[in-house]
Amino acid sequence: RKAGGMPKRSKKGEDGDGAAPKSRREDSALYEDPPVREETAEGRPYNLKVTSWNVDGIRAWVKKGGLKWIEAEAPDVLCLQETKCGAEGLPAELNQLQLLPHKFWGSAVGRPGYSGVGLLSRTEPLRVTHGIGIDEHDAEGRVLTAEFPSFYIVSAYVPNSGRGLNRLPYRQRWDRAFRDFLLALDTQKPVVLCGDLNVAHQEIDLKNPKSNRRSAGFTQEERDGFGALLDAGFLDSFRVLYPTVPHAYTFWTYMGAARERNVGWRLDYFLLSGRLRGALCDSKIRSAAMGSDHCPITLYLALEA
Amino acid sequence: RKAGGMPKRSKKGEDGDGAAPKSRREDSALYEDPPVREETAEGRPYNLKVTSWNVDGIRAWVKKGGLKWIEAEAPDVLCLQETKCGAEGLPAELNQLQLLPHKFWGSAVGRPGYSGVGLLSRTEPLRVTHGIGIDEHDAEGRVLTAEFPSFYIVSAYVPNSGRGLNRLPYRQRWDRAFRDFLLALDTQKPVVLCGDLNVAHQEIDLKNPKSNRRSAGFTQEERDGFGALLDAGFLDSFRVLYPTVPHAYTFWTYMGAARERNVGWRLDYFLLSGRLRGALCDSKIRSAAMGSDHCPITLYLALEA
DNA sequence: CTTTGCAAG
DNA sequence: CTTGTAAAG
After folding, report:
1. Which of A108, B50, B67, B206 is 20–30 Å from A188 (CA)?
2. How many Cα atoms within 13 Å fall on the side-chain side of residue A32?
3. Is the CB of A81 under 7 A from strand C?
4. What is the reported pLDDT for A305?
């Protein structure tokens, strides 16, 4: 296997956003993802494309055509969260996804239908590990880590703090342990963290910051947990590229027609080891893709040869 | 109020079976209900029409158009079983059923979504009672009794003996107590018992008698319970009129496409006090009506003035 | 196979 | 509002 990036492949169907964006009021509540930048600032083309999607139940998501969207997007690596399904109950249609032949699954033990993550790859990883190495955190199928020759990819579904924040103390323990886990990986190879981090970092990252100060996903505790990842050197790839773009969300509750009104939250991220800054081409929010209460996000990296 | 029968009303839409039945092999697994006989053997026209239907969840049944079928059938009294709904959660569409303005509901206490019966009437009953007067049996919302000037109508959902027959002992206690209840009513006025009695009486009353000898609904114990009602003088109105007609069922499990293959059971009955024999015009099985795993049945009586 | 209610998000 | 589950039929 080559060092850096992935073996070359034919490029096709990675973007359907050819039409020019219609002009809109600056304060529009809607958001249109700009066309993909396929090269770095220095002009190097991307050679790794990663998609992450909280599918909110992989069985329902497959029925709603999620796999067809993935085939058109054609990422090199696909990270899934909230599969809500053990490896046994997975839909057979997944076998027909020949684009991503190497498939790995994690699920909660003794809790069918809860949590669960997936990591699918075009090329075979050197190895794949489950969890973060701490029993308290590894029974819920929340983390898969794939090691490739020159980087790690982590698919993560961070615990929700729950109604009434009853699980916020646990979430704080998680945040600390997960950060330690990521930093340990980072001492070996650069890390691409993908997934539903279950936090909106700043006010710009959700529609209603004021009324959600004590809601799961926007407490100071959770925001500080995210901040600590950035302080430790990780980059929020979307905000690095679009530091002031508002209304860019990846989750909308099913309640109250929130999605059509774009009353959303940015909960899904690609966080990168700082030394991947120069490899970053683009970090996209695919808000038109339906099938879950989250939309997919896609990362384009130009890794060194 | 008049004694005997109900006040006259305009006749309309009570039957859509105008076409002549197609000829079929004698041993056909299918069943076609013959046209309604609207008069007694002596030529007296019916003046009471009662429909009974185990709706298997009234909320889903209403969504599937159950009420439209009822409006076309236009009975004087409608008995419903397995509403699976307390009086609070009933669909609003029921209010628009002006055909049957007097509505009564029974539901299980402390067990939302379980059991439940309804009794709806065109004319106002003298009174309506819940249950059969025994605490052990009256917590599950299984019986409503409406008293009219010259008869009682009972809407009943008899307890299922359960997988593994684990509730058969309870069922036997129920059968005894329910029989006593009906016989006590019968000493006052003739009784029309409608509902899901959760037993196929004889081999002719289900598709697969051999393999169901120890299945809930066809154990000797349950069949004997039914037999005891007949011994006590009640009439199985359908079998009185059609003593040897096979393949006449009112329930088909949702599993294995049982309904389209007519792999069914006759579990829903109109049982009549013996002295109503002369009033019996017809007892129909409306197997074309969809919306539940049971179909409705309709009784036509010509009560004395 | 389908309806419920429930936990979870 | 939607996904799972379980109990019940």
Report:
1. A108
2. 15
3. no
4. 74
